[in-house]
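Sharing a chain and its predicted structure for anyone who wants a worked example. Both blocks are below, sequence first, C-alpha cells second.
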Amino acid sequence: AKPTDDTSTIGISIFNQFAAESLLLNEFGEKSRPKIYPVGKISAAKKDETYLLVKATHGRKSVLYLLCYDQHLNYLTGMPALVDDRDEHTYLRLTIDKKYNITRVMEKRGGDGQVIYTRNVFILNADGELVLILTESNDTSKARENILNPIDTLPQVHKWSGDYTQGKKNLISVRDGRNEEEVLIFIHFEKENGTCRGELKGRARFISPDIARYYEDNDPCVIEFEFKGNTVKMKEVKSCGRYRDVRCFFEGSFNRVSKKSK
C-alpha cells in the first residue's frame, strides 16, 4: 500500500457518496471516525470496469476496501478486501491479475512453525456482483466447521439483511439486492448427520413487506421466506430437488445472528 498522510485523506461523507455507507459501518461501527486514504485505481478497458482501492484506519485496525464501478463510473459493489488487526503472525495479500481475477491470501504461522494459508478468488460478474469462485486452504482443523458463504462480504443495509442460523451447519444468508423489493439469498443446510444436504444461491423478491420468494425464470424451484423479528421461516413451495438430496427439503425456522457476535 502507498504511504498515507493527512494531506491525501478522503472525508467520510465524500466516501459515502461513491460507495455503500454500510462498508464503513460494518467494519468500524457508527461512532468511529476512521481516516480514509486513496491507494490505487485499475481500469479494465476491454471489460468497461474500474476498480478503486481505498484504505481506512482507526486505532489498530486497518481495512483495504475494493470498490467496483461500471463504464460510466456508477458504483456497483464493494467489499473489505483485507482486514488487518496488526497480528504480527498473520500476512495478508491482495492481487488482481490480467483477467481481473481478485485473489485474497491470508497466511498465518502456527506455534509449530507451519504456515496455514487461505486463498479466495473473486470475480465481478455481469450483474455487478463480486462472486467467490474459488477457495483453497491447508487449514484442516477448520475444514469441516466452516460454511463457505459466497455472498458474505456484500452489503447488509436492507431491513432483513443478515445471517440466520439453525445450529452450526444450517445457514440462511441475506444480503442487499438491487432495490428494496429484492434481496440476495444463500442457503446451506445439513440434516441427518450430514447425509442429507442442500444449497442454493439466488435472488428473492418480496411479495409483501415480510414475505419473500425465491423463483427464477426457467427454474421450477420456489422457496418462501417469512421474516418476523429476529427469525425467518423457510418453506419449500415447489420442486427444488436439484438443489438438495431426495430425503430432505428447504424448511425450518432460523434465528438471526447479531452483527456484533458475528
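Comments welcome. The radius of gyration is 20 Å.
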